[in-house]
Amino acid sequence: MTGKVLISQEQIQAKADEIGKQITEDYSKLDEPLLLVGILRGSVPWMADLMKRIDIEDMTIDFMACSSYGASTKTSGTVKIMKDIEEDVMGKNVLIVEDIIDSGITLNYLKGYLKNRGAASVKICALLDKPTGRQTDVQGDYVGFTVGDVFIVGYGLDYNQKYRQLPYISCLD
């Protein structure tokens, strides 16, 4: 085990059930298609669990790779897009799926970026929220858990590309 388990695999699965039902309820009322955009690499486990629980027929997925961190534990403040989405967002409801809202710099940038490309709406679904790290006023529309000012790893979150495979959320020792 790496560090202390802060959020267990069972807690994450229960939260995926809860949020998946809420997303289904909210988006099934709308006429526009739903596009889930996972932010690589950290969102992969969360998005995989979440999308299985969203019961919307007109839903597609895509991925973006972008960061304001690089190999550091502190944001650089500059967002770099390494892989853009392939799906056309015009007229679609876009739900950005992220592992953690920390500084908010990347998510704030992406919301504007996707809105400028014609998305009907852009919302954020994050497994974790770390409000103490916030440098913008971006908020999650669907948030699993709030965490304190510790460096989190596991369940997709990494330190220098390590520990993503842990089936729980832990803080790095």
TrEMBL record:
<comment type="function">
    <text>Purine salvage pathway enzyme that catalyzes the transfer of the ribosyl-5-phosphate group from 5-phospho-alpha-D-ribose 1-diphosphate (PRPP) to the N9 position of the 6-oxopurines hypoxanthine and guanine to form the corresponding ribonucleotides IMP (inosine 5'-monophosphate) and GMP (guanosine 5'-monophosphate), with the release of PPi.</text>
</comment>
<comment type="pathway">
    <text>Purine metabolism; IMP biosynthesis via salvage pathway; IMP from hypoxanthine: step 1/1.</text>
</comment>
<feature type="domain" description="Phosphoribosyltransferase">
    <location>
        <begin position="9"/>
        <end position="159"/>
    </location>
</feature>
<keyword id="KW-0808">Transferase</keyword>
<protein>
    <recommendedName>
        <fullName>Hypoxanthine phosphoribosyltransferase</fullName>
        <ecNumber>2.4.2.8</ecNumber>
    </recommendedName>
</protein>
<dbReference type="Pfam" id="PF00156">
    <property type="entry name" value="Pribosyltran"/>
</dbReference>
<keyword id="KW-0660">Purine salvage</keyword>
<keyword id="KW-0328">Glycosyltransferase</keyword>
<comment type="similarity">
    <text>Belongs to the purine/pyrimidine phosphoribosyltransferase family.</text>
</comment>
<dbReference type="GO" id="GO:0016757">
    <property type="term" value="F:glycosyltransferase activity"/>
</dbReference>
<dbReference type="InterPro" id="IPR050408">
    <property type="entry name" value="HGPRT"/>
</dbReference>
<keyword id="KW-0460">Magnesium</keyword>
<keyword id="KW-0547">Nucleotide-binding</keyword>
<keyword id="KW-0479">Metal-binding</keyword>
<dbReference type="InterPro" id="IPR000836">
    <property type="entry name" value="PRTase_dom"/>
</dbReference>
<keyword id="KW-0963">Cytoplasm</keyword>
<comment type="pathway">
    <text>Purine metabolism; GMP biosynthesis via salvage pathway; GMP from guanine: step 1/1.</text>
</comment>
<dbReference type="InterPro" id="IPR005904">
    <property type="entry name" value="Hxn_phspho_trans"/>
</dbReference>
